Amino acid sequence: MKRAIPWMLSAILSIALIAYFSEFHRLQTKIGILSQHTFHDHQDVRRAVIRAHLADADRPIVIVGDSITEMASFPNDLDGRPLINAGIGGATIADYAALAPKIFEGSKPSLIIVAIGANDTTNPNRQQNMTPWVGQNPPGMVT
User: Fold this and answer.
1) How does DSSP assign 17-59, residue by residue?
2) How many CB atoms lie within 10 A of CB 102?
3) In what order do the strands lie in the sheet with 81-87?
4) Tens place of pLDDT for every residue, the chain, 143 residues?
5) Cα maximum dimension of the chain
6) Whole-angstrom distance, CA of residue 75 vs CA of residue 110
C-alpha cells in the first residue's frame, strides 16, 4: 500500500496539471475573443441611438463629442429645443468627421455644439482634422 501512494499522488497531480492547462488554454482563447471587440461595436450602437433621437426631434440642439460628452448629464431641452447628446466614447476628430454624414443625414439640427478632441491630444494632425468642422455644417445635414 505504501508503494501505491506515490503513484496515486502522481496520477492525481498529473490529472490536476492537465486540467489546469486545459482550463488556462480555454480562458486564454476566451480572452483572445473578447479582446478582438473594437471601438466600432460601441460606435455602431451609439450611431443608431443618436440617429433615432435625431429622427424623433424637431430642430434639436446636438452636442457632438467623445466619452466626456457621452457620459455628461444634460437637460432634455434647452431654450425650448430638444437637446441630443451625440457623444461617442473613444471618438477622435477624424472618427467623427467620417461618422457625421451617416449620423446627420437628413436631420435638421438648429445648432451643433462640437466638444471633441480629448482623444486627439497625442495626434500631431489634430488642428488639421478640426479645420473642416469650423463654420460648416456636417455633410448630409439638411439646412
Assistant:
1) HHHHHHHHHHHHHHHHHHHT--HHHHHHHHHHHHHHHHHH-SS
2) 14
3) 77-78, 81-87, 61-65, 111-115
4) 677 888 888 888 889 888 888 887 777 776 666 555 555 578 888 989 999 999 999 999 999 999 999 999 999 999 899 999 999 998 888 888 888 888 888 888 999 998 888 888 777 776 666 665 555 555 545 54
5) 90
6) 16
Three-state DSSP class for residue 85: strand
Cα–Cα distance between 103 and 95 in angstroms, integer? 12
Per the CB < 8 A criterion, the answer to whether 89 and 73 are in contact is no
Residue 61 DSSP one-character state: E
Q: Which residues touch 104 (CB under 8 Å, ≥6 apart)?
A: 54, 62, 137, 138, 139, 140, 141
Cβ atoms 109, 53 nearer than 8 A:
no
Pick from 62, 73, 112, 68: which is nearest to 89 by CA?
A: 68
